[in-house]
Design brief:
With 133 residues, the chain is α+β, with helices and mostly antiparallel strands. The protein contains five helices and seven strands, in the order H-H-H-E-E-H-H-E-E-E-E-E. It has helices at residues 2-5, 11-27, 29-44, 71-77, 84-92, and strands spanning 53-63, 66-70, 96-98, 101-102, 107-111, 115-118, 122-132. The chain is elongated, with a radius of gyration of 20 Å. It starts with a helix and ends with a strand.
Amino acid sequence: MEQVAEEAVNPMMLKKRLAREIVGQFHGTEAAKVAEANFEKEVQSGEAPEKMEQYTGIAFDLGGGIYRLDITKALLEKGLVKSRGEVKRLIAQGAIEINGEKINNTTVDIPSGSVIQVGKRRFLKISIKKIDA
């Protein structure tokens, strides 16, 4: 604590060391290294996780590998939102992105394999079963 008060050490370094020791005691040193790497990638850098929930939906094929999909059902079914109203509110706030781009409508034209991000840490990968328009 003296080092933190004197600003000799960054508090985040101490928190990471504590987390690494706790995870290491319960799950082993290799699991602690993996957990720390995931924390740095997903939380500190804001990148999408490697493993994420997947939703397979039915969408209209617009051609060229692009599909029209209403994302509301996917977000509700996978528990990323609690209501249709929440989806609309999050879109209005700019809190929903698909492949890194903010959306302004629940109906989107996307390729299969797209990633929906809700807020900072909720992700959903979309795969499509096509319906010809």
